[in-house]
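ARCHIVE CARD
CATEGORY: sequence design from structure
SOURCE FIELD: tokenized fold
FIELD CONTENT:
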């Protein structure tokens, strides 16, 4: 278990809860004004797949990753169906109004404490898939793929919303898709650092008659399920049985491949075998070479939807996973819900994963909290109060006075 620090005695009081009360009447017009054009929209696509009238469009490519209205009738900022009472898009949106306490309360029966920097958690562990092949194909410990394979084998789910690469993978363009068996899960293993709106695979899953799904995604995507359930969206939220989160501080625009990796370092998309981010952008190429690109050179290609995201640790997943820390081939694993704990316990019993305590890598825990704090501080002042709930940063050390000039 991680140790939760007590808030400092002089910490400011938590902001007052501004919960939505009464009948939910919010529609596209409010979503457009308060989320889409205000900079809060992450492009998660939950509103798109939730629209019962199919009037929300989305382009899954550079310059896109934003919902837009497909009907011209009332202009792009209003919706005929919304005017008639349709509220599905705002019920789905994990950035609309009091989304954070809504998701917290639905999953945990309470709102996170100030000191719970990486969100409400039961346990933090280091985990790796026991199956060597799964482990090798996974980005870190292969835990995400191991969980999906187990959930499918046990019949808890019949499909998972994941991220693939287009075609033979040589373009490195991420594409949402559905995995229904071990081979498909493993074809989707590994991380892409451009955005992949995995919710968009939902329609394919429904068309294939899949009723019990797992969702894999960054926090912006996994917060959508509890928000939908709590706001009583109806049948759209029902198929999601298990949420697996990916720790994330940003994604990059796809143009980074051509405009930085190729233009400055001569690394072509098709030459790339694997990527990771560990303080630097690490790139392994098919010719056996290894390259490092400093992260500060990459910042110019940060995807716009990430700029105000406050959730590093995917706080509303059943289990959140990351790769920070000194053990490269283990997945740093935050077990959050009872369901998450039940899955982990049964997988350990079945010998499908190896586990060690996260206390073996205290620096990883400290870094997770530090990165969580950095993300929280991105939530804009003018937005609703809740995601700013955080302890004040530690005081800066005073700078030593400059030495006096010799006379
Ligand atoms: C964009 C992004 C940013 C990340 N940033 C951090 C970070 O800053 N710090 C950190 O500790 N960890 C980060 N991670 C998480 C880390 O890279 C691993 O995904 C995580 O540790 C799980 O590893 P694994 O071996 O258990 O998963 P695997 O078994 O390899 O499974 C990974 C799963 O993630 C899905 N996936 C891959 N890319 C994407 C994508 N772009 N969008 C949605 N789903 C995807 C795959 O379909 C697969 O199901 C990030 C992941 C992504 C995708
Ligand atoms: S954050 Fe997601 S659900 Fe909300 S408006 Fe943006 S794409 Fe839609
Ligand atoms: S930083 Fe990560 S979790 Fe946040 S919006 Fe971007 S992709 Fe989503």
């Amino acid at each position: 278990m991680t140790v939760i620090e007590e808030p400092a005695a002089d910490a400011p009081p938590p902001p007052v809860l501004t919960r939505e009360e009464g009948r939910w009447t919010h529609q596209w017009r409010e979503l457009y004004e308060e989320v889409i054009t205000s900079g809060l929209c992450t492009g998660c696509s939950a509103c798109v797949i939730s629209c019962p009238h199919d009037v929300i469009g989305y382009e899954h490519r550079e310059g896109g990753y934003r919902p837009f209205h497909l009907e011209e009738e009332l202009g792009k900022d209003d919706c005929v169906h919304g005017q008639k009472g349709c509220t599905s898009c705002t019920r789905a949106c994990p950035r609309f109004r009091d989304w954070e306490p809504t998701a917290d309360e639905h999953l945990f029966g309470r709102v996170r404490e100030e000191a719970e920097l990486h969100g409400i958690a039961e346990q933090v562990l280091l985990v790796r898939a026991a199956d060597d092949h799964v482990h090798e194909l996974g980005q870190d410990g292969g835990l995400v793929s191991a969980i999906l394979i187990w959930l499918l084998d046990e019949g808890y789910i019949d499909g998972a919303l994941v991220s693939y690469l287009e075609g033979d993978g040589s373009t490195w363009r991420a594409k949402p898709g559905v995995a229904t068996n071990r081979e498909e899960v493993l074809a989707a293993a590994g991380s892409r650092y451009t955005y992949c709106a995995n919710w968009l695979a939902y329609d394919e899953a429904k068309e294939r008659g899949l009723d019990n799904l797992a969702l894999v995604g960054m926090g912006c995507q996994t917060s959508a399920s509890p928000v939908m359930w709590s706001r009583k969206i109806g049948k759209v939220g029902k198929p999601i049985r298990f949420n697996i989160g990916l720790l994330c501080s940003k994604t990059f625009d796809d143009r980074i491949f051509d405009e930085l990796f190729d233009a400055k370092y001569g690394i072509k998309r098709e030459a790339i075998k694997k990527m990771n981010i560990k303080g630097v952008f690490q790139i392994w190429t098919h010719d056996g070479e290894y390259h490092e690109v400093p992260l500060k050179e990459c910042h110019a290609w940060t995807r716009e939807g990430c700029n105000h995201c406050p959730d590093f640790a995917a706080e509303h997943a059943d289990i959140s996973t990351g790769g920070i820390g000194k053990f490269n081939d283990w997945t740093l694993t935050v077990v959050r819900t009872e369901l998450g704990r039940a899955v982990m316990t049964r997988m350990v019993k079945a010998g499908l994963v190896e586990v060690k305590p996260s206390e073996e890598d205290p620096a990883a825990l400290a870094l997770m909290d530090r990165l969580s704090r950095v993300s929280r501080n991105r939530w804009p002042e003018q937005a609703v109060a809740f995601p700013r709930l955080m302890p004040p940063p530690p005081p800066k050390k005073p700078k030593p006075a400059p030495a006096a000039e010799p006379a």
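CARD ANNOTATION: Residues 31, 35-36, 41-47, 67, 92-93, 95 surround iron/sulfur cluster (ligand 2) (CB under 6 Å). The chain is about 30% helix and 15% strand.
SHELF: design records, drawer C
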